[in-house]
Amino acid sequence: MSDMAVTRELFDQVMVPNYAPSGSIPVRGQGARVWDQQGREFIDFAGGIAVNCLGHCHPALVGALKEQGEKLWHLSNVWTNEPALRLGKKLVDATFAERVYFCNSGAEANEAALKLARRYAIEHHGPEKTQIIAFHQGFHGRTFFTVTVGGQAAYSDGFGPKPADVEHVPYNDLDALKALISDRTCAVVMEPLQGEGGIISPNADFVQAVRELCDQHNALLVFDEVQTGVGRTGALYAYMDLGVTPDILTSAKALGGGFPIGAMLTRADIAASLKPGTHGSTYGGNPLACAVAEAAFDTVNTPEVLAGVKEREGWYREDLAKINAKYQCFSEVRGKGLLLGCVMNEQYQGRAKEFLQAASEEGLMVLIAGANVVRFAPSLVITREEVQEGLARFERAVARVVNG
User: Fold this and answer.
1) Which residue positions does N6-(pyridoxal phosphate)lysine occur at (predicted)?
2) What is the residue range of 386's domain?
């Protein structure tokens, strides 16, 4: 197998066509740098979509993987294991939560959260309390339940009848939420900063009011922190800076630093509704994933790294302002910490993808969040030099687009 020619063409021959990946194939990474098959270097501002919180091949993660890889990979949940218990204890100690459920991804964490919210409401308030309210442009995963709760119908249309009793209102629109919420509502599901929807921050008074409305109607507040969690916004979890505590929180992406893992966190009284047999995951909480995640969590959850995220946000904002003063293509830079979005102004509407492609040609990996936002979600420990070099490449990419 090793002498097989592995090219981008092979993708089209063997893979289901739901992705259209870049022409170059990365083969190696170190810190915030990645090299492709041809040895071409990229600066990574994409972070595997906010996953690689410690960049590539961080020694703490490599060490944890190698060490656990020699011990135990998988048991099944007929037994528990030490890495899962240690990671669970650390998550509980560091957050509002009292109980943790492990799975493999953000979608699975959200699936568990939605099932728990429904089950809790039905057990405590009766069979009518099933309505889930979420927000337009929200994103919660691609399982059929989570993609229906996500606020982009295009992602859930065309697959037949959708899970019922799921409704959407505009983000930051308190009146719309007030008009819809009732004692039939079992949960309000929201990102404390919309990621895929365009890097939209919540108004502080809006978040407070959502919490109060949930309390009034005995509805659970579910925070999807898959993208915002584990240091991304400069707090360990975004809710900590908002002065609002959810009832259920979901975490994934950066939690494993690149190794697949997800977690749903909640209070003990709510968790009680998932009794043995009600929900599960074959790989969830396996020792290999939990050992790597524990190393990632320990590394990020320090005052130095979290303060460093806010410092790095300053580096980005300062240099992006200089670039924009020259080329005038962004109306604003949105977001918080190291989840940032450059928003196209009127002249460049719908052209975010052109900036992404030009960046790639200049040796820079970036993301988009919709047609109008170029998104950055780099390593939380990216160096000043890597940021400067990446933004120099970004400036050349911007010049390319602006000058046609």
Assistant:
1) 253
2) 8-58+303-402
